[in-house]
## 1
Amino acid sequence: MERPNRCSLLEEYPAFDDIYCSLKALRRMPKAVIGESRKAVELARRFNREVVRPRALELDLRKQEDPDHLPWDLVEEADRWGLYTMFIPRIFGGGGFNFPALSCVLEELASGCTGIANLVGVHYLGVATLCSSWNIRLMNRVMRDTVNGHRGGRPCLISLAITEPDAGTDVEEVELVRKAKVSCHAEKVKGGYLVNGRKIFISNGHLSTWHMLIAYEDLKHPETTTVMLAVRNGMPGFSFGRQEHKMGQKACPASELIFEDCFVPDENVCFDVKQAASGVTPEEVEKTVMQVIDYVVSGSRAGVGAFGTGVARGAFEEALRFAAGTEVDGKLLVNHEWAQCLLAEMYKNVAVSRLTYVETNYANSLYGMFKALNYRPVFYLLKMLPRPVIDRALQPLLELPAVTRLFRRIYFDWQPSAFTRRTSGWASLCKFAATDAGVRNCQLALEMMGRAGLRHEGRAEKHLRDSKLLQIYEGTNQLNRLNLFKCLIARSVPQARVFEE
Amino acid sequence: MGSANRSELEMLRETAASFAANELLRDREETDRFPFAPFWRDKVEKGWRMGLFTLTLPEELGGGGQGVEALAVVLDALGQVDAGMGGIVLANALAQEICLQAGAGGIFAGSIEDESALETLTACPAFDDPRFLRPSLRADKRGGRWELRGRSEYVTLAGLAARMVLPALTGEPAGLSYFACPRGETVDVSEPVISLGLRACPSCDLEIKGAEALLLGEEGGGEAYFGAAYQRMLPAAAALSAGVLKGSLREALEYARQRRQGGREIVGWSEVRMILADMAVSAQEAELLVREACRAVDEGEPGWTLTARAASIRVLDLACEAAADGIQLLGGNGYMADYHQEKRFRDAVQVQSFLGMQDMKRQEYAGLLVRDGLPW
């Protein structure tokens, strides 16, 4: 019998590299990431204690009373704490904290209030979307706008405008968008695009200055005509519509954005068909569009997983507090064996959820969007270079088309599909595992707490309301299960077809 | 208590369903905004005039003399459209039931002829099980009269009703007793507590400073009275949940037929069909369980307490799962107030804690199983 070689055995399903991202990533990870992550978590905990917990319930009530209220004061406070710039790379003027630490921060904030965590996290969804175009010139311009806003005391947030009235989940997958009923049209005209249409459920829409708008040149063939445009407030033809009346996460508005003959100049085009990859065949364009989507969701779904972990933790902490202080049937609830088991189950849900976003971030650092920044020489160079050197010597280089071309070569043309499958698959796993756990912990907390959990000031009911949205945005958990199947399972079953039912 | 025959029950169901469709459907988003929107006094008055709040009171007290099954039929029909009104009916029925179990139904005599519904409603801590979570309210006898002092939390309908039925500790060692107390000057009623669900059926906290109260039944009899009322009202709560579940299913099915994704109707996606199937199976299960539980209660068949509890606990859980699935099926729209599914989700979880913590319901059920053995 022929002896299989070690490599082929490791490539058999489940492939070693697919399931042990952390083992490979740890060896390459810059050591400073640990200290930096500790600093980020410490900051988030302080922000939680001083801002989130004292204000979360009051803001939630305010929004119940006045659904159109916008929490500008909280955005300004978060900006003062540097939360909107700390994860922007130093080369673009930001704090340069490593991106995986963002998930840790989001978990901390969501343990206090998922709505406020979203107020911060969604800004980085906008950043991730912008970065997924690898248009270095625009990345520099938009992110420096945010940094300058921070310095001037004027928060400058970035949103992602993708969901449409008749297309939600569809727009997060090329196979679905092909048949979707999209309506946001970007017509190529001289010097730019003329946009018409509406976007809905845009988190932070009303609070953001920049909007990464996804539109389509041909509404019948959106999969090959996707464009990403950077729209700034004040552009003629762009306006805000209503705010949705959400069940939870009320701190973060879900906005309607309206585009009526909105002219977006060429210099604000992050990405369009002509820029896609090196080829121009529809297949290649489609592949690149999917790569863009995958870069975004591989990062953002880890963030949503962190929200899920945070809300699971928040619910657990409220249940623990209740159990420790409430006498039930003659003794403290925390001393009932069944309650101890239930609390252990909730703790487990938090810990396992956290592991999924940590592993997803290892995958992203090795194979995805973070790989260049986490490459040790780049990581330390960007940490050590004095700001004036970055601003004077490096910035002009970022304007060069050749730099954008280089990054696109690396991130589009040279990106193996196995890498994308790995990051996207893990991100989906993290997203639905952690958010399901988040909702579950909230339900368990309420079942344990009874009427104390139903009261607004008990916080548990707010956690439950907040948590449910996590199973819906960034692709429903059903879509994420299908994506996990597509990315990490279908390869082992050649006859399997996904999204072709 | 009597039990209605099938045709009477069907008539009740139709009446309640028609009331819900004509009176509750249109404004349910706004009424649910209470206390940030006006209280739906006119609708409650209409419900009162229809006899929804006296259904299970004996005929000799001017009530409908109906059994739990009739109450369940009404709550199911209301719950399908808007559980808020069902919450008021249920909490009021619980307060009445505690009094009846204490042999103190006489306090309702004549009251149903009052002009105003709110004057005749009875408040009680409907989301507590005082057998496990002891009240901090205390009653002491002074000069032959009972006086209540202390705090009573989350008393449902307390901001509206003229009368309250409250558990309090009496004697030494402390026993549990029930008292009827008017909402007078010695009772401070808080603003409505902002709650997860059933917002149009508000609860308030009470600070009582020496309010004169009427002992219901015997001193120390509270556990028995509550226990007996609990057994009868738990299936009624399950019926309200079953209504919420059915409403969720109807909404989800309608949405899945209309909405398209990936170029076809959502209902064409097999994963969506799995969710719909789960919801539909739950709805059928809830229907059968509630009916069986109510029949067991009304007919008092052997082992009925276990049957009713098991069925009710299950239905309360099923409704929460199905309401959550309903939101999932509607996607982002399901999370928004305009589609009402988020309200069903909140209401289902709220009803789950009716009569106390869901986990303690399970614990008590296991205790009964150990004590009495299996019911079959």
## 2
Amino acid sequence: MLAPALAIFIAYRLAPLFWNMVLSVQHWSMFQAPTFAGLYHYRELFLYDDTLRQSFENTLIYLASSPIAIAIAFALALLLDRPLRARGLYRAIFFISYPVMTVVVAVIWQWLFHEKVGLVNHVLLSTGIVGKPLHFLQDDQLALGAVIVASMWQVIGLYMIILLTGLQSIPATLKQAAASDGAGPWQRFRHITLPLMRPSIFLCVVVAIVNSFAAFDLVYVMTDGGPGHASEMMITYIYDVAFSLGRFDYAAALTIFNFAFFMMLAWFANRMAGGDAGGGDGR
Amino acid sequence: MSEPILLLASGRRWLRSLALSFLVTICACSSDSAAPPTTLYVLTFNMPHMEAEFSLWAKEFRRLHPGFDVQQIDRKGSNWAAYYHTQVIAGTAPDIIDTQGAIWLQYASQGGLLDLSRYLERDRDFTNQFYPELIESWRYGGKNYGVPLYFTKTLLFYNKQMFKEAGLTQPPRSFAELMSHARKLAGTGRYGFMTLNFDWLYWPLFAMNDIRLVTPDCKRAAFNTPAARMLIEELAAATAEGIISPTSWTGRWVEPNGMFAAGNVGMFNAHSTALLWIMSNAQWVNEGSVGFAQMPGDWSVPNAHALHISASTRYPEQAWDFIKIVTQGSGALAFGKKLNSPTGNRVVNAQLREYFAQTNPMVLDVLGTQFEYLDRMVANWPLARDTEIKHAFYPEIQSAILGNKSAADALASAERKVNHILSRPGGIPEDCG
């Protein structure tokens, strides 16, 4: 029964990963026979590549913004878990950004951040917060933040649905029992809701990690990693090295580095969530 | 015979008849119809507007080589390399590629392009039509890898009305004068100077301050000097003060051209094809309103296109013939007329001059400047890893000019990266420098 799924997993996941490992220890050019390079590319990666450092830091910043998105989504989920008129409509409105194609989201936010016709600059100027338009996507200090805001806007809907599903799976009797024992709203949230939401929060964290390491289309369309490498992410940098520079061997070494870090993070997140993909009892 | 056996026998007959008729049909088809033409693929660099001209070239090619066809695949500049690299890896490299700038060096150095020296030597009548300096531009390691398709180099365009209002009568003749002109031209909502930044087009600013990218033997970086530090600090200060447009360092093509077309920029360092873009987007641009001159010191950066043949092509002779159709005679003339740009072919350029004298005197004047001071062309170093060096160098300089890093740090960081790239085996031809 598992064979077809396993075959696909091997063909599309393990085989490319293995091929990347092989490629990363070779001098490989598009037109010449490969030669063994040993750890040459890894040495370059750790000793010379400032862009890697910057794109790695940017990826971590991108990832670090996830708790904010998850917190906002949690607040929305708590609000929409209450008996509310037109609750379904609100849920649909908050979720609608997620199914929108990422490229479309990028174009929408490019316009919103535009220095001449963008809504964001219009609001900032008309409220007197800034004196002249901000070049969000061309500014070294603002470009990454602008991309993160767009990303949060898109993914909050998904987090909200995941968390809402988690909230609805908590038996109402537990809260009622706690209330009758004299537990206040904060205590009920702290000691009942939050622990039981752990699997849902873990799922959001995993989605956030995956999003951070796969944040290609949004960055590519909005800033192309620029200005300079100010909004460069690991994934856009790997693409650039492979396809713009034609250095597939070095890009393979970057991919292995990226993969190793990704695995470490996933393992760490799993440990934090109780050691059984967030669903176990923590033993 | 019983009924089922009769039916079976009859079924077998039908089956035999059917198989026979299939065979007859296949034979008839293969004998009557002609084999489909063999197609040569040509990958062009940001030339979607050349479809009509391409059809003419294809028609001429089919006349010369019946049984062959040619197909254009065009990709935007930003997507061109990704497309080409994936095609090469898939083993389906286009037969002919059109490159811009110095990207071809990487492919030539790795054996991806066909050495055209033999063809250029054999067809002397064809080769002699080209400017020898341009033919030399596509030499790497003693071999020729490209035939020039069109040729442009950078110029300084200036807004005559803004010059008049600032009391300026002549374009600048030195870097100091360039900056003082820029200061006089800048004002509310107006910038004094702007430059294109891709493909080293800003390098005249470095050349006029006597800064070199690499040592004469091309083995080490040579740009981390006090002069470079001073230059970057001056450019950063002028950018921060609004004298130089920040778009110079962040925009690619449409944004800076659009700003000059809007009439708010005094001087613009751009290659001559930018003029075509600007003219098509601004009614006010004509010989009375926009002037042009060589950059101070007559420094310029070439930004030409050339056609190359992939080493993997199975049809090198046919590919060579297609290149000849495009780069000489009526084929090249059609190209030059469409692009308002000189080709690499002297004979064709003489015809283009006559054509522009009647249709567009401003283009004629610009065209006249393109073959002056060819000995002052810079940023055309024969480094196979030019693209990598550009990727390592520019973001550092950009960061310093935009005020996010000190000039000293940016230069030191760029130097370390460039030296590492140069130290990797291969990539520097023996005749470099």
